[in-house]
Amino acid sequence: MICAKAAGLFDCYDANMSLYQEFADRTAKLIADGVLRPGERLPSVRQACKVNAISPVTVTKAYHLLESRGLIEARPKSGYFVRARLGHKLPEPEMTHPVGGSTALQVSDFIFQILDSARDPSIVPLGSSFPDSRLFPLERLGRFLAAAARRLDPLATVTDLPPGNEELRRQLALRYLAHGASVSPHEVIVTSGAMEGLSLCLQALTKPGDLIAIESPTFYAGLQASERLGLKVIEIPSHPREGVSISALADALRHHSIKACLFMLNFANPTGSRVSDENKRALVELLHKHQVPLIEDDVYGELYFGCDTPVSSKAVDEDGLVLHVSSFSKCLAPGYRVGWVAAGRFAKEVQRQKYSTSLATAVPMQIALAAYLKHGGFDNHLRKLRRQLMTQEARIIAGVEEHFPVGTRLARPDGGYFLWLELPSQVDTLRLYEEALVSGISIAPGPIFSAKREFSNYLRLNFGHPATERQGDALATLGRLIKRQL
Questions:
Q1: What is the pTM (predicted TM-score) of this model?
Q2: What would the pLDDT profile of 207-226 be if each residue is shown by its tens digit?
Q3: Are 322 and 296 in contact, with CB atoms under 8 Å apart?
Q4: Which residues cross the membrane (predicted)?
């Protein structure tokens, strides 16, 4: 029975978490681990109450939460059963095989043309890079910001110049410590979002004409930053679930003079892949051997599903080669444009680049976020956000399974808010993008995630917006448009 098997699985328990949410999360972990398999019946409400010493209301609310996530289903007069895991009806894409060697980039005009459509609020934002702003505690954040502005010490305009507000950097160091990494506040540089952080790291490590390694596919913002700095890229194969190939990277390092690696290790954009903790250690060891720095774009690292926090690359970095970049834009405060770099041995170089470009990040924003991290209940917010994203993921996958044609492949992530889809080979997602836009739907076509504009039959969908009837209709329309190309 589930309750007996669940005994001892309190590793994700938190005193601030509602009892029904804690019970639901333990049950979800049993399902994810394969202890409870599709089609198996869960204990009745009475049985669950007896074994776990909890109330019927607690069990019922937990089962309803699991049902909303798409993990279980109620059958009339029979009870609750584990659902066939969503996404398992569709095979996942295979390891990528990027063509050729290094590439001089010319992608920005192409990307900007695609992204302009995401600004129109009348468009269903399946192609957006951002989650719905209503998922964030903006009103509460606003109160912290108002207090910071009222009490702003004029000296802060000087003292909070790079590397940034001291209390914010201390709070960030504490969060690293909670994730098993010992990071000094002195190596943390506050930036105007993660995008600036990536650019500063690249400027600190490279000069025009240098070669960097990126994964394939990769987030287009990294391509744009590399193009602006006159860099060449070599694309490293990646798996849609396991992330960048360590063996392929090792081969590239043997044959090319690579100055830095730019990777997403947690819930990569666009694939949603997550490099395992073991492979993170292997990756950092490999780069240590070659003395090549790693710029890790980790803006989705806090958006993991379930109880297992991903190991931080900083936790396995013993010689300061990792420049860890993140921000609050995807997990707390979109629009505040506050990010940071934990730059290891390169902190001084990154700080100097910050001085010579934007000089400083908005001081009231830094003070407000420092106060929120200390007093605002950030972890409570993150738990709610993760549960909401899990629910939305289940619903959009159900729509894809219902409406998309045979031959569709899907990479099912366990964090973030993106789905990476491989469509039948005849489908041109650039054409699909144009046709969908006419119908009031945005998508992110695969070629914008490639230096060579590969992945012509791939697309990325955003499940960071609450499922609505309008979204469901958009998926049905996409399915019809795709089938017309077959």
A1: 0.85
A2: 999 999 999 999 988 998 99
A3: yes
A4: none
